[in-house]
Design brief:
heterodimer, B: three-stranded antiparallel β-sheet, 8 helices
C-alpha cells in the first residue's frame, strides 16, 4: 500500500521537504499515512478530536511492519534505506498528529489558501496584532488570555508538591479539551473561518506550553519552557 | 590511555550518577544543549565550542555543542530583577506580552518617580526560553534610572547585541521591547486617568 511513498521519500531532513515529498504523492497529509484511523484523510473531513487509542494501535502496527531494526537480517535488508526513512516519517507524523497544537498547525499549513505556518513568529504576530486592533473587546480578550497563561505558570511555580499539580493539570486539560472542541466545531463548518481557527490554534499553543511545564515540574525547580 | 577501558572507579560512577540525575541542568540550558558522553570515556561530560565550567556546581568539565552565548547564560542562571511590583499602585506600570508562535509570556513592571519621571524600579516575570528570560533580565537592569522617554526608545537590537542572540532568537528580544513599551503605556494611561478623575472631582465639587 505504501510502496510509492517508500520509494520516493528518501531525501528529507526537515518538515518542509517532507511536505513537498508528501505532496508529490497521493499522500496529502500526515493523516493519510494512517488510513485505518483516518479513513477520510483526517480533519477537516473528520473530527479534530482523534481516537487516541486506535491511532496509537495503528501507528504501532505500521512501525512493526516498517521499523528498520525489525527488517535487519531479513530479506528486506536491501530495502533498508527506504524503510528507515518511512519509519522516521511515521514517527514525525505520529508526534505531529498527537499534539493538538502541531495537529492544527499541520491542517492549517495544508488547507489554508496561503498555506500559512503559524509557528512562524511573524505570521502569528501579525495575526494577533490584527486581532487586537479589531476592537477594544478583542484587545482585552487577548490580554485576558495572557493573564490566564501567566497565572497558570505562576501557580505552577508556587506549587510545593505533586498533589497541587493535579488540580492545575485538570484545569489545563479542561482548557485544551474546550479549545479542541471549539476547533472541531470551526473545522466542521461548511465554510472554514481560517482567521478564527488560527486564533484558537494560538490559544492552544499557550495551553500546550502549560501542559509541558506541568509535565516537567519538579519540586523546587524553576519553571522554564524549552522550545 | 588504558585507564579509560577499565571499569569506572567508584568515584567516577558516583559523578556519572550525579550528572545523569542532574537532568534539570540540561533542562535549564534549553533544547540546544545536551549531555554528551564520549564513547571511550567513562565520565559524562558536556562537550562543545565555548565550554563553560562549573555550571550549577557540577564538578566535571562542561560545555556544549550548540549553545547560548555566555552573556545569555549569565542572565539566565542568575536573572536580575525577577519579581512583582504592586500593580494597583499609581506609580507602577505593568506590561504583559506574549509570543504567539512559541507560547512565551512576559510581564514587565516599572515603578516611576512621579516628580522626575525616572524609572526607579523594574521587575519582570518571564515564562519562556533562556533567551526570553535573559532578554527581560538584561532589559530591566538597563531601564532602571532612565526616563520614560529614554526607556521607550530602547530597541530590541540593543538587547540582541548584548546577548549575542542568533537570528532565530531575535523575537525574544523583541518581546522584551514590546513589554517595556506596554508597561510605559499602562503607566501613562493610569496617570491620565488619575488626572481626569481629579479634574472631574474638582469640576463636581
Amino acid at each position: 500500500m505504501f510502496g510509492t511513498i517508500k520509494a520516493s521519500i528518501s531525501p528529507y531532513k526537515c518538515g518542509g521537504i517532507v511536505r513537498t515529498s508528501i505532496r508529490n504523492n497521493s499522500v496529502k497529509s500526515y493523516f493519510d499515512l494512517f488510513p485505518k484511523t483516518f479513513p477520510h484523510g483526517g480533519p477537516p473531513n473528520e473530527s479534530f478530536e482523534i481516537p487516541a487509542r486506535q491511532f496509537r494501535k495503528e501507528f504501532r502496527t505500521l512501525q512493526s511492519e516498517n521499523h528498520p531494526d525489525i527488517l535487519i537480517g531479513s530479506s528486506a535488508l536491501s530495502k533498508k534505506q527506504g524503510t528507515s526513512d518511512f519509519s522516521s516519517l511515521l514517527n514525525i507524523a505520529y508526534s505531529t498528529i498527537s499534539n493538538p497544537y502541531t495537529r492544527i498547525n499541520h491542517i492549517i499549513e495544508i488547507y489554508h489558501p496561503q498555506h500559512l505556518d503559524i509557528s512562524n513568529d511573524e505570521v502569528s504576530k501579525k495575526l494577533i496584532e490584527e486581532y487586537q486592533s479589531e476592537s477594544p473587546e478583542t484587545s482585552l480578550e487577548y490580554k485576558d488570555l495572557l493573564m490566564t497563561v501567566l497565572d497558570a505558570h505562576e501557580s505552577l511555580e508556587f506549587a510545593s508538591n505533586e498533589n497541587e499539580l493535579d488540580s492545575l493539570s485538570e484545569e489545563n486539560d479542561e482548557r485544551i479539551e474546550q479549545t479542541e472542541k471549539y476547533i472541531d466545531e470551526l473545522l466542521s463548518s461548511s465554510e472554514l473561518d481560517w482567521h478564527k481557527i488560527m486564533l484558537e490554534a494560538i490559544r492552544l499553543k499557550y495551553w500546550v506550553n502549560i501542559r509541558n511545564a506541568i509535565k516537567d515540574w519538579e519540586p523546587g525547580k524553576p519553571v522554564h519552557l524549552t522550545h | 590511555m588504558d585507564l579509560i577501558r577499565t571499569r569506572p572507579t567508584e568515584a567516577m560512577s558516583k559523578s556519572m550518577k550525579k550528572l545523569r540525575n542532574d537532568e534539570s541542568m540540561m533542562f535549564r540550558l534549553g533544547r540546544n544543549l545536551r549531555l554528551v558522553r564520549p564513547i571511550n570515556s567513562p565520565v559524562t561530560r558536556l562537550t562543545g565550542i565555548n565550554g563553560v565550567n562549573n555550571l550549577n556546581g557540577a564538578t566535571s568539565m562542561v560545555g556544549f555543542t550548540r549553545s547560548y552565548h555566555e552573556n545569555v547564560l549569565k542572565h539566565y542562571s542568575n536573572p536580575q530583577n525577577v519579581g512583582t511590583l504592586n500593580k494597583n499602585s499609581l506609580d507602577v506600570g505593568t506590561g504583559l506580552v506574549g509570543a504567539p508562535a512559541c507560547g512565551d509570556v512576559m510581564r514587565l513592571q516599572i515603578e516611576v518617580d512621579e516628580e522626575t519621571g525616572i524609572i526607579k524600579q523594574a521587575k519582570f516575570k518571564t515564562f519562556g526560553c533562556g533567551s526570553a528570560i535573559a532578554s527581560s533580565s538584561y532589559l530591566t537592569s538597563l531601564i532602571k534610572g532612565l526616563s520614560l522617554e529614554e526607556a521607550g526608545k530602547l530597541k530590541n537590537t540593543q538587547i540582541a547585541k548584548e546577548l549575542n542572540l542568533p537570528p532565530v532568537k531575535l523575537h525574544c528580544s523583541m518581546l522584551a521591547e514590546d513589554a517595556v513599551k506596554s508597561a510605559i503605556k499602562d503607566y501613562k494611561s493610569k496617570r491620565s486617568n488619575k488626572t481626569n478623575l481629579s479634574e472631574a472631582a474638582v469640576a463636581t465639587s
